[in-house]
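Re: weekly structure request thread

Next one in the queue (128 aa):
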Amino acid sequence: MREDDVFTAMIREELEQHERFFLFRERELLRSKEYRKLAIQSLRQTRIFAIIVFLTIVTFSLISIMHFVEFGQQGGLSRFVLGMLSWSFALASVFFYTKNILEKKKCMERVLKLLEAREQFHDTASNP
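Done, posted below.
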């Protein structure tokens, strides 16, 4: 199997567009051209990161609700400000982190599909 085929070029292009999301180990796998292992490992890390982000969003949402309830019962500007800051952080997390998670997940799924297509192409090319 040739290493410089069209599928490999498409895979490299896809991975290089999203290289800013890669950790050190993922960059090493990219340099060693272990694309399948890179994609599987990145998908696993994306799932773990998504759970952490989800828990963070839920936590800060609950904290903001708690501050708003205390503001309603006791008044005071500090409770309102803390509630707004917690709520703002939860909304920012939803927008920024989930966008990055979904972008990386879609990239790795495309890489796996391209690897599968490359294998199917080479199987059909070798067995006419």
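Helices lie at 6-17, 24-31, 35-74, 77-126. The first helix runs from residue 6 to 17.
Next request, please.
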